[in-house]
Amino acid sequence: MTLLEAQNIAQQHALMIRHPTLEFVVDVKYSREFHSCFYFDLIVKNIANHNNSIPIGGAAGIIVSKKNMQAREISFGNLSLLEENEATLEILYELLTGSNPVNDQLSLFKNKYKMESQQFLHLHREVQKNEKEIVLNMIQDLLDKQKGRLHVI
Question: Which 3 state secondary structure label does DSSP give 18?
Fold first, then answer.
């Protein structure tokens, strides 16, 4: 999924959000890309003057999933969880692929996340091939299984 595709989906979703006054329309402004989604701030625009836009209160913005191309509003609290999850993914990825001996880190990772041997071998191969997207997806799946924590996307 490209940023342009995600922005179009987010804008279509924003059109369904009604602003209490008729002279304003809800729109989106690109903010950042996460591993699993694109995030857009919600803004309101004056219909008469589109250059005059302001942030909107309530929901923080809209996320568009890279997996299923679905858009939904996200609260400020869930946006914080999404940011924390992204930081965790990057830390774990760096741990697995950093300057430390990879095999030792992978063994610790296997034990911590109670991975099955076949799953562990697959992760090990992907780390060796330096397939970041695949490794991040695998880490995300392990994090989701490990805890009943909120899965934002």
Answer: coil
The DSSP symbol for 78 reads H
Residues 6+ apart with CB under 8 A from 31: 39, 40, 41, 61
- What's the CA angle centered on 103, arms 98 and 104, to 5 degrees? 85
Given the DSSP bridges, would you call strands 61-65 and 37-46 parallel, antiparallel or unpaired?
antiparallel
For the CA atoms of the chain, what is the radius of gyration?
Answer: 19
Write the CA distances from 105 to 88, 110, 124, integer angstroms: 15, 9, 10
Tell me: the pLDDT tens digits for 39-83? 999 888 777 776 666 655 666 899 999 999 999 999 888 999 999
